[in-house]
Each structure stands twice: as C-alpha cells, then as structure tokens.
Amino acid sequence: MDPIRRKMLTTGAAATAMAAAPRALAQSGAASSTFYERGPVRIHYEEAGSGFPLLLIAGGGLNATIELLRRGDPFDPYAEFSNEYRCIGADLRNANGGQSSGPLEIDRPWDAYTDDQIGLMDHLGIDKFMVLGFCIGGPFIWNLLERAPNRVVAAVLAQPSGSRISMPMVDRFLTRMYRTNADFVFTVTRDFVRSCQTPVLILPDDVPAHPYAIAMEAAMLAPKAQVSIYPWKEPKERIPLAVRHIRSFLRAHRPACCAQPPPMSRLPAESPLIVIATR
Fold this sequence. Notes:
279 residues, alpha/beta, Rossmann fold, eight-stranded mixed beta sheet, 9 helices, globular
C-alpha cells in the first residue's frame, strides 16, 4: 500500500476509535475522564455508568480527589453504584495529587468549590441529581442544599466533617473556611438544617475531623434525615450493610421517571431497610 495512503487510513482509524471510546466506556460502565473549563477554573472529572446522575464528592479535606474515591476506603462508590447510576466525581480545585486548578478564592472558600460542583452539573446538562459525599463532602453537601435546593433530590453524608487544622501557607484561606464560622457544619446554620426538606442519609463517624455529636445533631434537626448504623466502618464486615442502606435510600428517593430495575443478582439481599445509629 502507498505509504501516504496507509498513514491516512491509520490516522482515520485512530480518530474513529477515539471518537467511539467515550460511547463504549459509557455503555460498559467503565470510567470516562475529561475536563471542563470556566474562566480560570479547570476541573478534572470522571464519569462511569448510566442512569440517574449521582455526584460523588471525595473525602480527604482540601486534597479530595477521584483517586481517593477509587481507593476503596471505606468503599469505592464508583464500583458500588455505577451499575445503576451515572456516577460523576471530580478532583477538588487545587487538590494535591489532583488535576483540577483555579484561583484561591480566600473570601469565599466554600462557595468557590460549590461553584465548581454546580458548574460541572451545568456543563454536563444535568438539572436534578443526587449526591454522595465523604468527610469534607458533608459541608459541601449542606452548601449545595442551601444554594441549589431544587436540584439536589437526595443526599448521603458519610463520615461528615466538623473540624480541620490550618496550614501556614494558606492560613488566611483556611481561617476563613474553618475558623470564621467554626460552628456546627461550617457552611450552613442550624436554622437552615432545621428547615431543609431534602432527604438526607447520615453515616456518622467519631474522630476529631468527623465528630459524632455534630453528625447526630444534624440528623436530629433535619426533618427528613435518616441515620445509618454506628460504627459502620469497623469491623469491616459492617461496611456492606452501610452500603446497602445507601443503595436503598438512593432508590427510594430517585425520581420515578428515572428509575431502572436493580441488578437481579442483588435483589434478594437488598430489600429496603432502616437502621438506627447506636453508640
């Protein structure tokens, strides 16, 4: 074959394969990784699965990344839910080890990150969605519920944050974020939680960064809150029970128009359940 023609055909085949890859990944449930940009902000995100949108917010404080979601500590939400939902996660802006970047908005730290999360949903053409967040995802979720109450259908807060230490190089930023309103869940007031009509499921933890008392106070205040078992991460055998509660909760609050039959292999073990936190 003529070398030039062969090169053109090879290039064309590669281009076709690249164009088809996102579709194939989406159909197979594998992850598709890309970026969205808004002015000086560039957010790296990853999708997997199909169905009603489920925004995933990693733990790890200001270093929350997709990698931490995938690590499986305490569980990998992509692996657990992408067979039933369109799972969408992103690296936090400027997270160490992540690929997202943008300005450090010292005067509005929580809202800057919420801008990224809402902006990602807008970029993907998603109006209504559910959200599952770990650690720092707790304050982010309360902020989402305050700023976009008509878009978040239901939310799961796993080991939600209640405190954070400072670092000298970003002292002003963290002071504004964690100390200026160092009460309750950082982003919203008790009055807001008391009036919040969005269904929430809270999985308490009990370490300094994830205080049990704050998680339970939020659960008692929120009129449509449920609480999972406690402790739910130890022993490890309890984690599948907590995941089952999350799955039942999400199914119960997923809009009827977007529901799909659950995988047959999981039906016998996943009837709806309500469990109460104990200590």
